[in-house]
């Protein structure tokens, strides 16, 4: 089953982006992935869950929030 997982992640330097890409590439059964530095958004497509993406990002010391939740928080004020 193909899922699209979108996460809000703080992408503040090139080293962070490299760590995130390296971690995401290790997830099994992914089809595509994208890191949008302007939106601080990571998108992973494939047989993957939000929990899997959060777990691999936590291993590289990055906090991830579901994209929907992140947008609700930004626009709540």
TrEMBL record:
Name of this chain's protein: Heavy metal-associated isoprenylated plant protein 36
UniProt entry keywords in alphabetical sequence: Metal-binding
UniProt GO molecular function: metal ion binding
The keyword Metal-binding is annotated on this UniProt entry: yes
Coiled-coil regions listed: none
Entries under InterPro entries matching the protein: HMA_dom (IPR006121), HMA_dom_sf (IPR036163)
PANTHER family named among the record's database cross-references: COPPER TRANSPORT PROTEIN ATOX1-RELATED, HEAVY METAL TRANSPORT_DETOXIFICATION SUPERFAMILY PROTEIN
Entry keyword annotation includes Heme: no
């Amino acid at each position: 089953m193909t899922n699209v997982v979108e996460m809000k992640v703080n992408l503040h330097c090139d080293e962070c982006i490299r760590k995130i890409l390296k971690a995401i590439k290790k997830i099994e059964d992914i089809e595509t992935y994208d890191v949008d530095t302007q939106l601080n958004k990571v998108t992973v497509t494939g047989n993957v869950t939000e929990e899997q993406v959060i777990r691999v990002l936590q291993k590289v010391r990055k906090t991830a929030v579901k994209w929907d939740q992140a947008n609700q928080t930004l626009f709540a004020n």
